[in-house]
Amino acid sequence: MTGQRPKPEPGLHFVATPIGAARDITLRALDILAGADVLAAEDTRTLRHLMDIHGIALGDRPLLAYHDHNAGRVRPRILAALEEGKSVAYASEAGTPLVADPGFQLARTAIEAGHRVLSAPGPSAVLAALTVSGLPTDRFLFAGFPPAAGGQRKAWLADLAEIPATLVLYESPKRVQKLLGDLAVAYGEDRRAVVCRELTKKFEEVTRGTIGELVGALADRAIKGEVVVLVDRAMAKLADPVEVEAALKEALKCHSTRDAASLVAETLGLPRREVYQSALKLAAGN
């Protein structure tokens, strides 16, 4: 790399790193990695390799390992560097720190201590998967890794079942088939889903279809690599006109039209606007 790089300002810089293709890193991220006073990483070997690829020398700067198993011990060292007015760059193993990766407690502690916390945004498996999924992106929920235990996993999926947003899950390749089977039971085989594997890497693969189709397509395969599973949003519940009318007539006996509509919509899990229109018709007819 040539040219004079700008010196990062004092503070804690969370640096997004590639999830596969090394060239996906941003120029600003490279500037921060080249100029920060202290470097910290979830996996120091991965960060050193990335820096070597892009010609960034570590020099005599400290490189600290910071992950879930040593965070309590290393965090004070990072905070001490910030107290001295130094710039600290932290990178998770791949992708954006804090998104299913370490960094939350570090960020919160630094903020509480009055230090600047900055983001050098970039690669994210969540956004990459959404981009290629073909599922709605106007509203989505990143739910992280499902619990491994069967009972907890089923309860966890049940809590997400009716959320009107595309669900984004991370999963171990060893449990993808089991997750798809649980999704078929919890959400039905007709709900659309996508399995993304090895995004941005040589063997990137995106499999789309209904949950039932994905169960069949991946049943006998040995799944390897990083996996993101996306599930289409819950479909709005279809209203039973007879049930809605009966509920509205009862509610209108002691509520205003607006309040009756809100009560019935909440009780039956229906869009309030549609129920309100039905309530107006009933009120006009009385």
Automatic annotation (TrEMBL):
Subcellular location: Cytoplasm
GO cellular component term of the entry, any: cytoplasm
GO molecular function: rRNA (cytosine-2'-O-)-methyltransferase activity
Keywords, comma-separated and alphabetical: Cytoplasm, Methyltransferase, rRNA processing, S-adenosyl-L-methionine, Transferase
Signal sequence extent: none
KW S-adenosyl-L-methionine (keyword) present: yes
Domain called Tetrapyrrole methylase: residue spans: 12-214
Methyltransferase among keywords: yes
Enzyme class per UniProt: transferase
Catalytic activity: cytidine(1402) in 16S rRNA + S-adenosyl-L-methionine = 2'-O-methylcytidine(1402) in 16S rRNA + S-adenosyl-L-homocysteine + H(+)
RsmI HTH domain span: 239-282
Enzyme Commission no: 2.1.1.198
Family from the record: Belongs to the methyltransferase superfamily. RsmI family.
Protein role: Catalyzes the 2'-O-methylation of the ribose of cytidine 1402 (C1402) in 16S rRNA.
The protein, known as: Ribosomal RNA small subunit methyltransferase I
